[in-house]
Design goal:
The protein is α+β, with helices and mostly antiparallel strands. The chain has one domain (about 5-245): Creatine Amidinohydrolase (Alpha-Beta Complex), CATH 3.90.230. It has four helices and 15 strands. It has helices spanning about 5-30, 35-50, 120-135, 145-155; strands spanning about 55, 65-70, 75, 90-100, 105-110, 160, 170, 175-180, 200, 205, 215, 220, 230, 235-240, 240-245. The strands form four sheets. It has a five-stranded antiparallel sheet with strand order 8-7-9-14-15. Strands 1, 2, 4 and 5 form a four-stranded antiparallel sheet that branches. A three-stranded antiparallel sheet has the order 3-12-11, with no helix packed on it. It is globular and about 45 Å long. Mean pLDDT is about 95; it is low at about 255-259. The structure holds 2-amino-4-trifluoromethylsulfanyl-butyric acid and cobalt (II) ion. Cobalt (II) ion (CO) binds near residues 106, 169, 200 and 233.
Length: about 260
């Protein structure tokens, strides 16, 4: 069952998304060579609480931090650590969630640390574009797998591979609600999208086709062969008047347009 949100819930989700977008923007400004990921986690928790929210991930299924920090070949769910220092040339995926007034917002981005190589730049550009291709398809009356197909077919056309083991999801009163949103598949399947649905669309993309693995810490997902991975996510709200990308920052349609 896909829960539909009321206008008042949608109002809160919009506000939460706006606040979370600002938090992520401030956090990304702290990313630099030598910074360790536990420091980023501490900063993130402070920013979330200043914004009037609670870190959505902390304690979720026992997760120990407020953000996920996944570097290079790490795909998602990397645990922040004081021993993990960023280095020039790394790519860092930051995944962050905020809970306020009983409703969750969920967002992720991948940022370069200093100057990065050409294949990493391509990976970031394609993953973010894949997210926007999916968002564009998320219109009322479309089928859910139209979104999945738009993402997967674009990523493949660029010679990259979507992660199939993890998916996007509904979001709202719970961090993860129905429906699951794969980043691949044939169009024209699954439920029709309706006003009041709130979706977290989140392509995870890698440079190689091998299946992912989970490390012994039971959280960190890594690529099968050490290739790079990227992750972009937005929470979107479907309304009668169109799609609202609630976790989008203030600087235009796509944050990474300058890349
Ligand atoms: N943002 C992640 C998702 O969309 C959730 C992170 S799971 C956690 O599925 F345990 F790390 F919080
Ligand atoms: Co999510």
């Amino acid at each position: 069952m896909i829960p539909l949100k009321s206008p008042s819930e949608i109002g809160i989700l919009r506000e939460n998304g706006k606040r979370l977008a600002r938090v992520l923007e401030s956090l990304c400004a702290e990313v630099a060579p030598d910074v360790d990921t536990a420091s980023l986690d501490q900063i993130a928790e402070g920013l979330i609480r200043e914004a009037g929210g609670e870190p959505a991930f902390k304690g979720y299924r026992g997760y120990p931090a407020s953000i996920c920090t996944s570097i290079n070949h790490e795909v998602v769910h990397g645990i922040p650590s004081p021993r993990r220092h960023l280095r020039e040339g790394d790519i860092l995926s930051i995944d962050i969630g905020l809970l306020r007034d009983g409703l969750y917002a969920d967002v992720a981005t991948t940022v370069p640390v200093g100057k990065i190589g050409e294949s990493a730049r391509h990976l970031l550009r394609v993953t973010e574009e894949g997210l926007w291709r999916g968002i564009e398809r998320a219109t009322i009356g479309a089928r859910l797998s139209d979104v999945s197909h738009a993402i997967g077919s674009y990523v493949e056309s660029e010679g990259l591979y979507v992660v199939t083991e993890y998916v996007g999801h509904g979001v709202g009163r719970q961090l993860h609600e129905d429906p699951q949103i794969p980043n691949y598949g044939r169009p024209g399947r699954g439920p029709r999208l309706q006003a009041g649905m709130v979706l977290a669309i989140e392509p995870m993309v890698k440079t190689d086709p091998e299946p992912t693995r989970v490390l012994d810490d039971r959280w960190t997902v890594v690529t099968g062969n050490g290739g790079l991975a990227a992750h972009f996510e937005h929470t979107i709200v479907l309304t009668e008047t169109g799609v609202d990308v609630v976790t989008q920052g203030g600087d235009g349609r796509r944050s990474g347009q300058t890349r």
